[in-house]
Amino acid sequence: MAAHLDSIYSDEKSSDSLFLHPAVKKSRTTLMQLLLVVLLTVACYYSVRKYLVSYVQVVGTSMVPTLQPSDFYLLNKWVYYFRQPERFEVVVLRDPTDYDFCVKRIIAHEGETVSFQQGHVFVDGKKLSESYLPRGVETFPGKRDNQTIHCGANEFIVLGDNRENSLDSRVYGVVRKQNILGMLLY
User: Fold this and answer.
1) Most distant CA pair in the chain: distance in Å?
2) Closest by Cα among 55, 181, 52 to 106
3) Is residue 167 assigned to a domain?
4) What is the domain range of residue 125?
5) Active-site residues: which are they?
6) How far apart are the first and last CA of the chain?
7) Which of 16-25, 41-50, 80-89 has the highest mean pLDDT?
8) Is 35 contained in some domain?
9) Model confidence over 62-104: pLDDT tens digits?
């Protein structure tokens, strides 16, 4: 019987250790809540940055004067899940020549044909009005005189705004939609 009482006494002692002082319980709960908030905040930040919006830094001068080298801009990654890229939007894409990221302006989309003649851009035979370029900027073909490029399904023609210093569709041809990462917000 004494052994039985000892076991009951030891159980009571161990169960007493489960009951903490209310101040200790409150601080543990607060710490757990804080840890949960921090973890959710970090998860949200990385999710938003990876799938919705991130920032990019412009490297190079292919978009001068619209975008300046070393400036930071927001990249809207989700917009093209809901619609196609549109003419004149500035986008970030994977450069087909070296698979690095680059910033260009969309000039033409699916079903359109672009030609470069006498320093001007023509889309489906009509001269393109490019109000975002400084007066007097001419656009010459990349590889050959009077170059013509046609966009197939989910293909786009992109040009840099600094036409004399831009590797773009005049050099590497059309860009597939899957290579467009998002629209630049500037």
Assistant:
1) 110
2) 181
3) yes
4) 53-185
5) 62, 104
6) 83
7) 80-89
8) no
9) 999 999 999 999 999 999 999 999 999 999 999 888 889 999 9
DSSP state for residue 62 in the 8-state scheme: T
Mean pLDDT over all residues of the chain?
A: 87
**Other Cβ atoms within 10 Å of 125 Cβ, number:** 7
What CATH number did the domain enclosing 152 receive? 2.10.109.10
Per the document, the length of the chain is: 186
pTM (global) more than 0.70: yes
Residues 6 or more apart in contact with residue 120 via CB below 8 angstroms: 127, 128, 138, 139
Q: What type of residue is 40?
A: L
Whether residue 175 contacts residue 157, with contact meaning beta carbons closer than 8 Å, is answered with yes
Q: Is residue 153 part of a domain?
A: yes
Mean pLDDT within 104-129: 95
How many structural domains compose the chain?
1
Q: Are 58 and 71 in contact (CB under 8 A)?
A: yes
Look at the block and give the residue holding tokens 């597939």: 176
